[in-house]
Write a structure and sequence with these properties.
The protein has 22 helices and 5 strands. The protein has about 475 residues and is an alpha+beta fold. It has 2 domains: about 270 residues, Orthogonal Bundle (2-methylcitrate dehydratase PrpD); about 120 residues, 2-methylcitrate dehydratase PrpD (60s Ribosomal Protein L30, Chain: A).
């Protein structure tokens, strides 16, 4: 429907309008083959994380809360979930599940997890509206663009204000994906952005413990979808909501300080691109380890020492790690809960040294109480390295020095961890990760059938049967 525009609304073109016009005009034919394949890969990767995360404590808490409130029951399936919900509730559950195990993808330049907000919203609405696969994949590309570019324009200023970009910028990502599926024009997309801006939320308080972080993508995905549906239903919102005085960038990224003129930024150029594509989805990373991405370069370093130099945990006298400030902040995080353990440099690096891996199985209660790992974690120190800080967020680097009991020192510098766009997982590794996460929940045959469909999702006439196949 056409949106009436009151005279009091801003009309100056800026980053909000730029994003709105991009989302409204995007078709899959405009997306190069490299980015199109990346969109398939990241959809598969996210769905695997969602299916595996459907049984985690935070997801079950959400489902229990919905049941207690008497809301949510409907007909919309969600990956890995038994209960059918309304589209909004299905999206919340799916987003929470996808982020719950620290296995979801991300965009380094924006320190954001786009898949966890984009894929659940697109899957829920696409299944409800019986969208075809071509439009579904277009929605994925649009959602990733919104998540990555807005976060890159905000980072790291938003982080130092205490905001989690996945929860805040995620509303615009989910809303953009939904707007594509709903066929919104540029005025409607800008209206969606104006509504979604009021729903952005998510603080870094999770570093102190608890499971609330897991729900950030769920909340953002639901609220972004709601903003798109409210636009479809005629609710009016302000224009220019990203950049005007009382808008998103001023509130979340320090625009009020005058350090950045957000009204003048080229939003679609924020962050960085893969050499082969201009679309942000092509430059996102996938996680080979079940921990915070800021720690992955350190894990790469010690695993390489083990493989190349025969380093074993009992040889380690001390470990000194230098990295960028955002990462180094995780050096003081404890491991009393799975949530914090996956964010803790000492625990994760000690786990890699002691077990030669960092998997979901390494964060259980018994593993967190393992005296060998705890003792090793106490010998790991983290500080800010000037070179790593200078190149961040262009790269997520770490320098690791391990002093052995005999006094010898092993050193590694990893400036880009495994799983990044420049060091990507192969298609075979993406498939293996998906099946490893999905098969225990869906069964091997269903997981393989779903994977085969996902590799050609843009050829499907209706994604609803695929959504049913992915549900538990």
């Amino acid at each position: 429907m056409d949106m009436p525009v009151p005279d009091t609304r801003l009309t100056t073109k800026g980053p909000t309008r730029t994003l709105a016009e991009f989302v409204a005009a995007l078709t899959l034919d405009q997306v190069d083959d490299f980015a199109r394949h990346a969109a398939r890969r990241h959809t598969i990767d996210t769905l695997g994380a969602m299916i595996a995360g459907a049984t985690q404590d935070a997801t079950q808490s959400v489902e229990k809360a919905f049941a207690a409130a008497g809301i949510g029951v409907g007909t919309v399936p969600m990956a890995g979930v038994k209960q059918r919900y309304d589209a909004l509730s299905a999206t919340y559950v799916g987003g929470t599940a996808g982020h719950g195990l620290e296995l979801d993808d991300g965009y380094r330049a924006g320190s954001v997890h786009p898949g966890g907000v984009v894929v659940p919203a697109a899957l829920a609405l696409g299944a409800q509206r019986h969208s075809d696969g071509k439009r579904f994949l277009t929605a994925i590309v649009a959602g990733y663009e919104a998540a990555c570019r807005i976060s890159a324009a905000s980072h790291p200023r938003a982080r130092w204000r205490g905001f989690h970009n996945t929860g805040t910028a995620g509303v615009f990502a989910a809303g953009s994906a939904a707007s594509v599926l709903l066929g919104h024009d540029a005025d409607q997309v800008e209206n969606m952005i104006g509504t979604a801006a009021s729903y952005a939320a998510g603080l870094f308080t999770f570093l102190a413990g608890g499971d609330v972080k897991r729900t950030h993508p769920g909340h953002a995905a639901r609220e972004g979808l709601l903003a798109a549906l409210l636009t479809e239903s005629g609710l009016l919102a302000p224009r220019g909501a990203l950049e005007f005085k009382d808008g998103y960038f001023n509130a979340y990224a320090g625009g009020d300080t005058g350090a950045v003129d957000y009204s003048a930024i080229d939003l679609l150029a924020a962050g960085d691109n893969h050499p082969k594509s201009r679309f942000a989805v092509a430059n996102c990373y996938m996680k080979p380890y079940a921990s915070c991405r800021h720690i992955h370069a350190m894990v790469d370093a010690v695993l390489d020492m083990a493989a190349a130099d025969g380093l074993t945990a009992d040889q380690v006298k001390s470990v000194e790690i230098g990295s960028y400030r955002v990462a180094a902040a995780h050096g003081g995080v404890g491991w009393s809960e799975m949530t914090t353990a996956q964010m803790s440099i000492p625990f994760v690096v000690a786990t890699a040294l002691h077990r030669g891996r960092v998997t979901l199985a390494d964060f259980g209660e018994a593993e967190r109480a393992d005296t060998a790992i705890i003792g090793l974690a106490g010998r790991i120190a983290t500080d800010v390295d000037a070179e790593c800080e200078e190149i961040y967020p262009r790269k997520r680097g770490a320098k690791v020095a391990v002093t052995r009991a005999d006094g010898s020192v092993l050193r590694r510098t990893v400036m880009e961890p495994y799983g990044s766009a420049s060091k990507p997982l192969t298609d075979g590794a993406v498939a293996e990760k998906f099946l490893g996460l999905a098969a225990p929940r869906l069964g091997q045959a269903r997981a393989e059938e779903a994977l085969a469909l996902l590799w050609r999702v843009d050829e499907l006439d209706d994604i609803a049967p695929l959504a049913e196949l992915l549900a538990a």
